[in-house]
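Regression check, magnesium ion case 382:
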Amino acid sequence: MNSAIVGLQWGDEGKGKVVQKFSRSHEWIVRFSGGPNAGHTVYHNGKKVVHHLVPTGTDKNKLFIGRGTLVNFDILNDEIAKLSEIYPDIKERLFISEWCRVITPVERWQDAEIEKLKGAKSVGTTGMGIGPTISNDANRIALHVFDLFDERIFREKAKLLKKFCGYQKDFEDDLLKSFNKVRERVEDPKISGDILFEGTQGIMLDPMYGTYPYVTSTPTIPSYLSYGSGIKAGYEVFGVFKAYVTRVGAGPFPTELNDDTGDAIRKSGGEFGSTTGRPRRCGWIDLPQLKYAIEISNTDHLVMTKADVLNGFDKIGVCVGYDRPFCVHDLEDVNAEIEYIKGWKNLESSEFGDFVSLIEKYIQKRIDYISFGPSEEEIKVR
Ligand code: GDP
Ligand code: IMO
Ligand code: MG
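Current build output:
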């Protein structure tokens, strides 16, 4: 059976950890969207690795970076080098679509410039050049991996890109050097066996279904999966959500806690960005938001992560409604209605059971898996 693992909040729900666990029962792990803005933290043989571009497989998986993924070759090479220490054959198991769009220094520079121009209204991007690569692509001047195989074509296209964007510096030689380290891995493989599609970001960061303009620029919803991978496949959707909510960067966050409780969650959950190191904004679980994300993603199975982070809190807040109906593009000044329940000491306690029941009653869906720690073993089926 094929599976898709997607985030149901604003990213960092623990998708990587869940992918790692499920990778054992799938042959292929496929990325279909996002780029190096993603940061999926997992532990391979006890060693912490943050995956930005290499799909989060383990020792036997074949890994495919599908065409919907934006690639930065420097970041990819660093990651391959790190992973090779754990899995010496990782490179031979990795395949990169020739259709992936290439992030160049031009787009990273544009990303910073647009953010500067927006000032107080900046998105708080990861600075990876995601938005500009998509807009350059829409303008039909972005670079694709297939351009890099012919140096003359590449230099010609790079020249146009630089001219249009007003970028002066040369990057061509460095980029080619970096690309050459992985050029033999560019191949659209024949895929057979079970596939696990590894989603990036979260539904609320989708450019068309999320909190626009405070979103990323590649789709995060599972219906993009075939488009972004070129693979025609049926699949079950596993929606991952935290027992609370975090968000990095700007944008509406109805249940945000700008107080000691928010700080306590950040500390307990180690909520600092895996790509940028920024402190993540923290708040209570938001059920109207979660219900929306479940619907948009057509989630079949729910996975709750990080409830263990809230162990020992006196009381836990749950947002059970707003002062107006949920509207994804109108969350800026919404007032969240918070219901407080008694906190729990551990996840075996009845208080935690009450928390789970409250969520399930609101979203009208069962939570199938509970993750209770960062390692791949720390997850149980309910
Ligand atoms: P992703 O981007 O969705 O893959 O999530 P990140 O890796 O950015 O952030 C999730 C963080 O929480 C990582 O550091 C994981 O190791 C950690 N994590 C995942 N699941 C759990 C869990 O159930 N409990 C705890 N305490 N940590 C978890
Ligand atoms: P994973 O896959 C959390 C956020 C950025 C910013 C907005 C736009 O680890 O869950 P971008 O650089 O994409 O143009 O930034 O999206 N963002 C993420 N937040 N987790 C991520 O990925 C994110 N990828 C982008 O912080 O608010
Ligand atoms: Mg992350």
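Comparison notes: The mean pLDDT is 97. The chain has three domains: 3-99+187-237, 101-184, 242-381. No diff flagged against the previous build.
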